[in-house]
Amino acid sequence: MEAAAILGHPGQVTPGIDSLLSANAGDGDWRNTAIIGGPWEDDGSLASGFFELADAAVERWKAGHRNDAIVIPIICNYRHGIELALKEEIREAATCLRRDGVTGPDVQADEVDQWLSATHSIEQLVNRLTKLLGQLKLGPGQQLPAETLDVLGKLHVLDQNGQAFRYSAVKTGPRGQRILERVRPGQQQFDLVAVAEALRDAGTMLLYGVSGVLDSYSDYQADMADWYGAEAP
After folding, report:
1. For the chain, which residues make up each domain, given as ranges?
2. Is the pTM higher than 0.85?
3. Predicted confidence (pLDDT) per residue in 199-220, tens digit
4. Tally of helices (H runs) and strands (E runs) in the chain
5. What SS3 state is found at 131?
6. What is the DSSP letter of 165?
7. Angle at 71 between CA 68 and CA 76, to 5 degrees
8. What is the pLDDT of residues 64-115, one digit of tens each?
């Protein structure tokens, strides 16, 4: 059996999605064709998709199509988009640090990917990104804003391992004594639109704000390499 590919290496991890269709499904309408995969698909592009899907659901809610069954899936999409955005910016920051000649497991591509694949913790991801941004010495005003950190910290408290918005019940307790408990045993009421805006703002800061700063820094590194005749690693 062929070994599954890991991030950064070519190879098919899963069958094509069209394998879900029956053999006699036909070619269908070409206007329904969707394109996925390839070099353009990364955690950043997927994060953007999760945000857009959640935004569309919120707009539907605001238009009067209010269905409480979609509330947790909306928050789940924002939460997962934020996780993916954090992972994407950690990779970008580590790449910039490698170009600056920084070494160590926190910035080596394979080890970064290995660490990222083992966590769904918003807190751990925020701490790692904050550390890397600090190492880049980007200057004042180039760290994560306090309001963004506040929302991310509260989101971590609500969902520490990426399960609270995926299921209605999760296992809790020490290994060997874990029991299944409801995530939301009591009814709650809140302003969905306001919560969605807070999550969307935090996600936007990560996916576009931090990325914009790192892209500018990357351009600066390329200019320095050109001016001084150095090659970026």
Report:
1. 40-228
2. yes
3. 999 999 999 999 999 999 999 8
4. 7, 2
5. helix
6. T
7. 155
8. 999 999 999 999 999 999 999 999 999 999 999 999 999 988 999 999 999 9
